[in-house]
Amino acid sequence: MEVERVQAIASSLSTTEIDSIPSEFIRSEKEQPALTTFNGPIPEIPTIDLSDPDQDNLVRMIANASQEWGFFQVVNHGIPIEVIKKLQSVGKEFFELPLEEKEAYAKPPDSQSLEGYGTRLQKEIEGKKAWVDHLFHNVWPPSRINYQFWPKNPPSYREANEEYAKCLKGVVDKLLMLLSLGLGLEGHVIKEAVGGDELEYLLKINYYPPCPRPDLALGVPPHTDMSTITVLVPNDVPGLQVFKDDLWFDAKYIPNALVIHIGDQTQILSNGKFKSVLHRSTVNKETARMSWPVFCSPPPEMVVGPLPQLVNEENPAKYKTKKYKDYEYCKLNKLPQ
After folding, report:
1. Among 16, 69, 187, 333, which one has the highest count of C-beta atoms within 10 angstroms of its own C-beta?
2. Could you cite one Gene Ontology molecular function of this protein (predicted)?
3. How far is it, in rounded angstroms, from Cα 334 to Cα 337?
4. Is 152 a catalytic residue?
């Protein structure tokens, strides 16, 4: 039996239940946003201008952000605003379709892949549920695309996603080069270590319906991304929070910026120098929040471990070397790595 969709639950809450949500969505006190969000002045989360002609400055800023936060936003990234707007528009249209139409893209129950429309993603230790529905599908490389999971409605969905993926590749290549240089390595090293042109781009659309009790629920619980890096397009409803110095900080919404998360594979490759960011999503009482992360990850059979250039007697390997598919399996099932 497939879990009930959160969008359907949100729509079904009657006016008498306007201040309540099902108990399985109420987080423990140590996770409730109202109790755990930092309310004082927020330290400056790095915003980096990717058009800066001074490459040394870019390398330094990205390396610092990756060490300090594991998270930054980029502006002047070169993806045309209309390409991003189309991506957002077709995604929003899909989630506004009747439930039966969306269910045609549901993730098959026995699937080993993440692709498809769904609600539950990974094992939740306390049995709590996240206030979110999602759609996953690969957008690159062409050999890994399965159009079965790409909505046919709206009709421009495929074109909008292919155009975005094409533009995104240049941004990802530039970021991986800058991260490589930031570790004191040649610019191609990280990209090659995660599969080169076989690096897989998995798009996820998160749909967080309006929630009567945003003080008690979470859209996505605290986690780090399995990816090498994640490039995220938000909508204008705030909700992304990052964890630093034992505090949860709101990430400011910057129009037309891309949000970059350092993922677990970069932390492993850098032998811990760059940090995979712990983050979560809050929800909104009045409006639906949406986001479009693309997880850039090694192919399943790719073996990833600390880069040999960064390991020596004084700095031994801090992580195991393993196939990415094995890492992913352990992560989703909350097993030790």
Report:
1. 69
2. dioxygenase activity
3. 9
4. no
